[in-house]
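for the writeup, i need someone to sanity check this before i put it in the appendix. the sequnce is what the collaborator sent (i think, or maybe the updated version? ugh). structure was predicted straight from it, no edits. if anything looks off just tell me and ill rerun, i have time this weekend
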Amino acid sequence: MKIGVVCYPTFGGSGVVATELGKALAQKGHQIHFITYSQPVRLDFFNENIFYHEVYIPNYPLFQHAPYELALTSKMVDVVSNTHLDLLHVHYAIPHASAAILARQILQSKGIEIPVVTTLHGTDITLVGKDPSFEPVVTHSINMSDGVTTVSESLKKDTLEHFEVYKHIEVIQNFVDLEKFKKQKKDHFKKVICPNDEKLLVHTSNFRKVKRMEDVVAVFAEVKKYIPAKLLLVGDGPERPKIEQLCRDLELEKCVHFLGKLDAVEEVLSVADVFMMPSETESFGLAALEAMACEVPVISSNAGGLPELNVNGVTGFLSPVGDVNDMIKNTLVILDENNLPRFKANALARAKEFELSKILPKYEDFYQRVLQESKGKYVAKASHLTS
């Protein structure tokens, strides 16, 4: 198949999933065309089946904000017309799905039919999509897509509850590449960070309020009173200055390290003892899955799709959002030397259930079904027009 992939090219979960999925499809022989405004951060290797099409965003004085959606639409029309794609797979409802629906209409006027698959990832539904400014567009884009998927049952439920959607939604959960995300021998790195064999807690995110990083720091501050420990914070974003100040206020500067954005986050996870994800909302928890693949148990909230991944008392613990005391208690249970090996083994075993090789065929099957259904629909339409 020739598949166009439209996504955000950044470190966010939707962009990571879209890029890793495209790479895996290319390795299986499918021709993948990425369409976005910059090269995706995870698009880090050469493959003869991968192509990248940059969306040029014109800068006119007339516009206070450049009309990216229109530029993206035009680029999709151009790529589909010239590469003869079989299907467009767009990740995130706004603006990708809406742009794809418009592109499909333009292409139909040229006699070109292109099915659109939309994958909903989380905040495009739970946060942005609920905004009255966007809700009608999100609803229309979902209903007009030829196929719709979500990354968890929780997100499917949220979509059906908050939008007037009549379209069937297929749940295809996120995945992890166990060849990349696995425990590596990084003893030298652990020794630098934890010279006195301290336990190591890790959190990775885009440092937004919804990630509740203040809870991460609060849990760590208490755990440190009982067990020698260090905390690594990986990523960057708007909450970083606030969290840095919080660490100074709690006199934790010497044991909390901000590492910024890292490409090889698996190297950090390889030396971690606990992964922290106390988020207010998570559609699935991809970062937690990547940690589990590196044999790191997870302390998380019970928000969104996290209970579908993190098995309470087995791979880690779930706590109500904001229940710092429960998270402290659970972290100490995991870090007990009598418990830690079991939790680490369970985390890896659970991660294997989401291995890329198990999830990829589900997308391929879904693509084929969408193509068959679309072909039948377009044939019926053509027959009606000629009768």
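The longest helix spans residues 356-386. The longest strand covers residues 199-205.
thx in advance!!
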